Amino acid sequence: MIIDFSKIQEEALFNFKGGEGELDTRNFIDSKNKVMMSRLKPGASSGYHTHEQNSEIVYIISGKGHFRYDDGVESFGPGSVHYCPMGHSHAMFNDGDADVVYFAIVPEHH
C-alpha cells in the first residue's frame, strides 16, 4: 500500500498534547498504526507524554531541536531517528528558526 501524503489534508494543531505552538500534520490512521508526516513550527513543542499502549519512531527530515526522553535530553538534526518504546515518555522541541519536518510511525501494541 502506498500512502500519498499529498492527498491527505494537512491539519494545524495547536498546543499538541499540552505543548506550545503549532504542529502541521498529515495523518494516515488505521486500527494498528498511525503514520504521520508533520512540521513542527519554530519555537513549538509537543507536550510530554507516555506511550502506554504503543511506541513511536520519529525520522527527522529537516530542522533541529531536542527530545526530552524520560529523564534525559537528546538533540536531533536531519537524519536522526528517535525511538520511544512503549512505557516510556517524551516531548519534542523545535530549537531552530525553521520548521522541523519529520516522518513518524506509531504502532499499537494491544
Automatic annotation (TrEMBL):
Residues annotated as domain Cupin type-2: 37-105
Domain of life: Bacteria
Ranges annotated as spanning the membrane: none
Signal peptide coordinates: none
One of the record's GO molecular function terms: metal ion binding
Keywords per UniProt: Metal-binding
Keyword check for Metal-binding: yes
UniProt cross-references to PANTHER family, sorted A to Z: CUPIN TYPE-2 DOMAIN-CONTAINING PROTEIN, OXALATE-BINDING PROTEIN
Protein name (database record): Cupin domain-containing protein
Organism whose genome encodes this protein: Marseilla massiliensis
Organism ancestry: Bacteria, Pseudomonadati, Bacteroidota, Bacteroidia, Bacteroidales
